[in-house]
Design brief:
The protein has about 190 residues and is α/β, with parallel strands linked by helices. The chain has helices at about 15-20, 25-30, 50-60, 85-90, 95-105, 120-125, 150-160; strands spanning about 5, 10-15, 40-45, 65-70, 80-85, 110-115, 130-135, 165-170, 175-180, 180-185. The protein has a single domain (about 5-190), classed as TIM Barrel (Alpha-Beta Barrel), CATH 3.20.20. Helices cover about 30% and strands about 25% of the residues. Helix 2 packs parallel to helix 3.
Length: about 190
């Protein structure tokens, strides 16, 4: 029988979503203090390096947990780790082992997470020097309409991961998951 775990909240702050909802980063950070959030990812696909750097510094002033930057390796000095997607990791090399080795040489022993979407990608990730994987989309989400929804099949696939798993996509605060899912990655469900 699988062991139930109380998955921890991995907050996802997406700058474009904040802007579209008219919510300032500062007010959102204040709101997040109402939750126990040990890890937080900042994602900003369109902003300049200066904007992202300023946002990371603001997050550091108002958040005491582990701070992950999405894709922007140039700002790793302002974060505790890097989360990278399947397409972005392949920009370093088509060989995933080489890609991860290159990224590791740039971030050292800071946390490294990789997005996965299915069992095949989980099996690839099992051979890589990662600290965790993101797995999704679990459910439909309001912010990524193009995401393929894996549903219950993803929960089964997660069992094959040798890395801790962060389940993402329509995840809600009250959701419960079994190991190896250690994180419930929540974005929209944490907004005001």
């Amino acid at each position: 029988m699988a062991q139930n775990t109380s998955a921890k909240i991995y907050a996802l702050i997406d700058k474009e979503t904040l802007l579209s909802r008219g919510v300032s980063l500062l007010s959102h950070l204040e709101h997040l203090k109402n939750f126990d959030i040990p890890i937080l990812q900042y994602r900003n696909k369109k902003g300049s390096l200066e904007e992202k750097k300023a946002d990371l510094q603001l997050i550091r002033e108002h958040y005491q947990g582990i701070l992950i930057i999405n894709d922007t390796i140039a700002l790793i000095d302002y974060a505790d780790g890097l989360h990278i997607g399947q397409e972005d990791i392949r920009e370093y090399s088509h060989n995933l082992n080489e890609s991860v080795a290159k990224v590791r040489s740039m971030i050292g022993r800071k946390l490294l997470g990789l997005s996965t979407h299915n069992l095949s990608e989980i099996e690839e990730a099992n051979r890589l020097d990662l600290d965790y994987i993101g797995l999704g989309a679990y459910r439909l989400t309001k912010t990524k309409s193009e995401a393929n929804v894996g549903g219950e099949a993803l929960l089964e696939a997660a069992k094959y991961s040798r890395h801790p798993v962060g389940i993402i996509g329509g995840v809600q605060i009250d959701d419960e998951f079994e190991k190896p899912i250690l994180y419930k990655v929540i974005g929209s469900d944490l907004y005001l």
